[in-house]
Amino acid sequence: MDPRYDVLDDAARLAREFIASLPERPVGETATLEELRARLGRELTDRGEDPRSVLADLARDADPGLVASAGPRYFGFVIGGSLPVALAADWLVSTWDQNTGGYAPGPATSVVEEVAATWVRDVLGLPADCGVGFVTGCQMAHFTCLGAARHAVLRDAGWDVESQGLQGAPEVRVIAGDQTHATVLIAARLLGLGLDRVRKVATDDEGRMIPAALEREMAEHDGPTIVCAQAGEVNSGAFDPLEEIVDLCRARGAWCHVDGAFGLWAAASPSRRALLRGYERADSWATDGHKWLNVPYDCGIAAVADASAHRAAMTLPDSPYIPAHEGGEPWGVDWTPEFSRRARGVPVYAALRYLGRDGVADLVDRCCDYAAWMAERLAAQDGIEVVNDVVLNQILVRVNDDDEATNATIERVQGDGTCWLSGSVFKGRAVMRVSIVGWPTEEEDVDRSADAIIRAAAQAGTPAGHSR
Ligand SMILES: Cc1ncc(COP(=O)(O)O)c(C=O)c1O
């Protein structure tokens, strides 16, 4: 083989070394921002450098700034790892370098994505004929779904938003819970629907939208309306009462969008699917592959029940060099806002084929069971309180019922390196936020991490350390 490609063997070796280090390396980074800038910042040369040295230096210099989020004890934000088969498929995606925005430049990967879309619908229990687009993450999934929503509610009001834009259009009201994720608001902003015009509806103690409050809000506006519900609140993991929300939307002709960045995957588990009751009657669903399905970044999925609205909102205007493909070849550009892009649906194909329906259910159930176990261990300690109802994979923890002690504990846990988690503010109180979605996590990791949290809480001046 051409020796210029020897660098690929180096990459495979370096990848294996990094993966082998994941179970025991400190979970957080060990270098400061200044140190990383000093290590990685170099003079750009005129003549370029040897590729093998470039790669070796890159791996060595980046190493202390790498976070072991693909390892077994990373519980920060909601970040999954990468299943080996998904990672390997992702390497092929980069190697093949197929532009999967279109069938012509990426025939095989377009068909792989077509199949992956069918399997996503199957595993998540979505309508068999819904539109599916593979986007960079849930942020762009919201953008795509709300783009379809904007198209449909304005079409129903006699307005063609794709050709006419929003100037002079009937007002579109967006309604969301007061705990809605920032990315829903960003999507509304990008679509010209106005960040501050999103109407916020009150939520209960777990962050679930209160249907009566939604009903009151909906009654105030008769025109085009988009309701954004949540399956898996970003802090508590709670589910909005989707059945009632969908019914309200149906009664008033509103579009119902579901943010299921991670929570939609509960639909894959027969024992957890009931949390989502009614979700399959919604109009659109945004979720991620790079969270609970454990495929590498970047991978989000937008699904829209009315495939024609989805396509109308995303597809290209006539373009002289793009062949017509009505009803024939699969073209990614019809379903996502992007034109050229990598074949990010390929790792989804590999992961779903590897796991099968039962494997996805097991992955979801395992993480939920570990979350319940972590919550039980922590709640058994004096001074540590689990403040949410742990229905899924999210655990919200408070130390000594005190913001300062909670934040000090988070800092200590991060510094200790056994596991990594972050903080948040939930219903006005500081909380430690533990999120379990990684495929490599095992019971021993949960126990080691619970021990580290308990130790840190004790050092933060609480009586934690003796069981009740
Ligand atoms: C509920 C929820 N919605 C949306 C997002 C945004 O997802 P992404 O970061 O993939 O854009 C997240 C990310 O954590 C989330 O938890």
Fraction of helical residues: 40-55%
C-alpha end-to-end distance: 65 Å
Mean pLDDT: 96
Largest sheet: 7 strands, mixed
Overall shape: it is: globular
Total number of strands: 11
> Which ranges are low-confidence, i.e. pLDDT below 50, for 5 or more consecutive residues?
462-468
Task: List ligands, each type once.
Answer: pyridoxal-5'-phosphate
| Strand-pairing-aware structural class | alpha/beta
Q: What's the arrangement of strands in the largest beta sheet?
A: 1-7-6-5-4-2-3
Query: What order do the helices and strands follow?
Result: HHHHHEHHEHEHEHEEEHHEEHEEH
Cα-atom radius of gyration: 23 Å
Can you walk me through this structure?
By secondary structure, the chain is an alpha/beta fold. It is 41% helix and 12% strand. The strands form two sheets. It has a seven-stranded mixed sheet with strand order 1-7-6-5-4-2-3, sandwiched between helices. It has a four-stranded antiparallel sheet with strand order 8-9-11-10. The longest helix has 35 residues, at 345-379. It is globular, with a radius of gyration of 23 Å. The structure holds pyridoxal-5'-phosphate. Pyridoxal-5'-phosphate is lined by residues 77-78, 137-139, 181, 183, 232, 234, 259, 261-262, 288, 300.
